[in-house]
Amino acid sequence: MPGRWLALPLVFLLLSPIPAHTQQALPIFDTHIHYSQPDWATYTPEDILKILDRAGVRRALVSSTPDDGTLKLYDKAPARIAPELRPYRTRGDMGSWYRDPALLAYVEERLKRGIYKGIGEFHLFGGQTDTPVIRRLAELAVEKNLFLHAHSDAAAVEELFALNPRVKILWAHAGMTSDPGSIGTLLDRYPNLWAELAIRTDMASGGTLDPAWRALFLRHPDRIMLGTDTWTTSRWEALPAYLEEMRAWLRQLPREVAEKIAFRNAERLFGP
Ligand SMILES: [Zn+2]
After folding, report:
1. pLDDT tens digits, residue range 225-270?
2. 202 phi, psi to nearest 5 deg
3. Which CATH number belongs to the domain containing residue 74 in this structure?
4. What is the 3-state secondary structure (H, E, C) of 10-74?
5. pTM of the shown model
6. Residues whose CB is under 5 A from ligand 1 (ion)?
7. Residue 22 alpha carbon to ligand 1 centre in Å
8. What is the Cα Rg of the chain in Å?
9. Which residues span the domain enclosing 103?
10. What count of Cα atoms within 13 Å lies in the side-chain half-sphere of residue 160?
11. 241-253 as b/e, with b when 16 or more CB fall inside 10 Å?
12. Is the per-residue pLDDT at 20 higher than 70?
């Protein structure tokens, strides 16, 4: 009967759009993981990999203080861990590393392993970049095609590009307090700049994606990535829930853009 046949497509139209919450969970490439010394007593590398499983983290860009934590994880899961070399032997190096030639020697020595995708995450702010250590570090990064993973303000990002326009920078926390408009301006200006959103929660409020952030994601879908930042041991326990919050606003973007931010951009830049 014609009436029946007409009704069928209507039923399909009503049933076929998959509600957002039942969509397959987006896999994540977490671009801001640390496995530093205080974590080791609480979580073995196997425990860490289980947490990543639970959170749907397919791969992670990992650094640690000291670097041995990164190597422990990398040894357990080399296909899953993209190692970065942090220029700190201890937490005490954090404040003075950029003017300490001993750390440059340390970095050059460790880079000989040839496994690293980047140097960082390091802390460096405007007015601290014009040192022989940073100048050489930028050269090394260019020579070896490594990213600089910079926890920096916008001023330091601009200074690093002025020092060496060929560096590639992964901007940690997208400047932490920089607003989406200013982040977009920097991404427009520097084609070798990428940003990750670790720790930040201002992309959405009450679960709704902020319009200024949406505009930034649609303008620069290839330049933005996710990260958690396990900077202190308690962050490990919070990691799966934090990434669920990220998925909630990602679902409000076109699937293609959400996938790029969740994992495709990082796969392209840091994947095996
Ligand atoms: Zn960090």
Report:
1. 999 999 999 999 999 999 999 999 999 999 999 999 999 999 999 9
2. -80, 0
3. 3.20.20.140
4. HHHHHHCCCCHHHCCCCCEEEEEEECCHHHHCCCCHHHHHHHHHHCCEEEEEEECCCCHHHHHHH
5. 0.91
6. 121, 229, 231
7. 32
8. 21
9. 29-270
10. 35
11. ebbeebbbbbbeb
12. no
* Number of domains observed in the structure of the chain: 1
CB 193 within 8 A of CB 169: yes
Query: Where do we find the tokens 């209507």?
Result: 10
In a domain, 234, yes or no: yes
pLDDT attached to residue 23: 54
Confidence of residue 25 (pLDDT cuts 50, 70, 90): confident
Query: How far away, in angstroms, is 122 Cα from ligand 1 center?
Result: 8
Q: What separation in Å is there between the alpha carbon of 19 and the centre of ligand 1?
A: 35
Token pair for 57: 């983290």
Whether residue 3 is contained in a domain is answered as no
Residue 12 falls inside a structural domain: no
Which two three-digit tokens encode residue 267?
Answer: 């796969």
20 CA distance to ligand 1 middle (Å): 31
Q: How far is the CA of 12 from the centre of ligand 1 (A)?
A: 47
User: What pLDDT is stored for residue 118 in this prediction?
Assistant: 98
The rounded distance, in Å, linking the Cα atoms of 3 and 187 is 56
Residue 86 lies in a domain: yes
